[in-house]
Specification:
Elements: E1 10-12, E2 15-20, E3 27-32, E4 38-43, E5 55-59, E6 62-68, E7 73-76
Antiparallel strand pairs: 1-2, 2-3, 3-4, 5-6, 6-7
Amino acid sequence: MEFGTSASPILAGDLVILVCDQDEGSYLLAVHKRTGEPAWRVERPLFRRSFSTPMLWQHDGVEELVVPGSIWLKGYRPKDG
């Protein structure tokens, strides 16, 4: 890996969300903020070298985790990815 990660973790309720986009094996990870135990993990094979911090966005009564990537962005459900 040339640069390493630079996305900041965010809080989504009781979860800490971490974006781990890299040259190979990119993923989005949520861990419980009190224990550090994994809550869920979503593979992101089409995303490489993203350096952006995700954000929570509410629209039409729905909360969405918006995660920018190297070419486009994608939305996820904060509770289960």
